[in-house]
Amino acid sequence: MNAVIALCHFCEVDGPCAIFCTQTLRDTKIEDLLNVEQPQQQQQQGQKACSACNYTLGRNNAIYSKDTESGATFVSTKVAVLPEVANLVKQAAVRSLCCEINPNRDGDGGFVFFGDSSRGHILSHTFRVSDLQSRGYYQLFSIIVLMKDKYFLLNTKPFLAEHLKKVSTELQAAAQRTKAAEELTYSERQRRLSGAQFLMPTPRSLIELTGEEHLFAQLHSHFAWILLAGSRFLTEHVTFGNLPWLPPQSSGRPPAQRLTYNSSTLPMIQMYEESIDNPEQDEFFSLRHIKMVVGKEDFPIVCYCALTGVKIIVRGAPDRTFQFMVCLKKLLPERMHNLMRIDAQHQHSISSEYKIISVSNEIAVPIASTCVLRIDFLDKHINGNDIVSVKWPGELPRKYPDLMVKLLKAVHAVEEKTFTELVLNKQTKVLIEEWKNKVICLNHAKSGSVQAKLKKVLGVQPQDQPIINYWSTHLH
């Protein structure tokens, strides 16, 4: 994950600053950083720092670890190793400890999101650590996650919040044990009598507050794991066996009415699973295959109906419609794949909750209407290509939804040889996941005013409302 995780401290001597930074290096080597001269501003910052701020790794020390699988290196230093990143972390540290604070009843801050495209987007978690020798008997710390990708940071916020909260809880528990031991040594009356001598010592470091000698090595392992796990947050899962958008099959003998379904479709499912990772088969399972089948003029109609919930009935032989159905599946999030039914054997499946259905030629289907899009695979072939009939009396909106526009551009880019079918599949997956997360965020908004503000933040336009209305009923 291309992010920086920093532990920040509000020092009574030097003010707010970052005291421990962990970041991911992929293209930059450790050897190259040894020859980089620190800017004069960072050198002055290290010279002016008190013992509490400087008692981490020192100015010339670092902890690093490397993931052999991905090749990423995780480096922890007092100041970020890259100068441009160090300036962003410094600004974020000041804001997280001074103004961007959301305190709870117990005194610990929640999670606050702030930032912009120029200074980066930050997720900040502020918390208190007990210290009997500090003003108010506590010191203020924060853990910030700095990232350039705004939407990725928002999407991973639940994951980051869960694990950053665990880190702060561990620090608070260790400091509480130190506080309890000090209270046994110095009674409250002794602290009052000692007065200024007790309350005005040199600020203590986090190691002294927690009593953990190898505290920053532990923090490095925590932060490095969060960066590594966060990079794998958005992944595509391959399901073995029956696909989730197909009807479940029992372990025993299937019912008689499903024998045709099993005998005609299961071999194609097995072939699909065997070729799902084969780059040579990508063109048969991408959105470009839909455009090749229905044509350039009808391709936007098919995409719009699939994205907005208009029922799509694909009629034809299973061996001719299966690949087409697999490609239509890519237009919906994984949670909505159960709205698809391949090779339906009964007419009642058409009137059920399924939105995308494929049937054989023997089954009667309703005529095309504004609520039903019919795609009929005809028996004629020209040069081995399928001839289809697309019927939908509805009209496309003047402005396409943003998701649809990006998908159409991606397919056009493949035709222009800008990128490959493999990249198209990855791009489709990312776009669908992005809008799935937008819909989930909007579902969590309780009032209309909050939802309107959230739409501005997420960049949702009025033409995107049909997709939101359809997806919000199935994504929670």
Tally of individual helices: 18
Order of helices and strands: EEHHHEEHEEEHHHHHHHHHEHEEEEHHHH
Helix/strand class: alpha+beta
Classify the helix fraction into a percent range.
40-55%
**Which geometry do the CA atoms define?**
elongated
Proportion of residues in extended strands:
15-25%
Q: Tally of extended strands? A: 12
End-to-end separation in angstroms reads 26 Å
Order of the strands making up the biggest sheet: 3-4-2-1-7-6-5
Provide the low-confidence segments as ranges.
235-277, 279-283
Describe the biggest sheet?
7 strands, antiparallel
Work out the radius of gyration.
29 Å
Q: How many domains in all?
A: 2
* Average predicted local confidence, pLDDT: 79
Describe the structure.
By secondary structure, the protein is of the alpha+beta class. It folds into 2 domains: 3-231, no CATH class; 256-458, Rossmann fold, CATH 3.40.50. It is built from 18 helices and 12 strands. The strands form 2 sheets. The protein has a 7-stranded antiparallel beta sheet with strand order 3-4-2-1-7-6-5. Strands 9-10-8-11-12 form a 5-stranded mixed beta sheet. Helix 12 packs across helix 14 (318-329). The protein is elongated.
What are the defining features of this structure?
476 residues, alpha+beta, Rossmann fold, 2 domains, seven-stranded antiparallel beta sheet, 43% helix, Folliculin
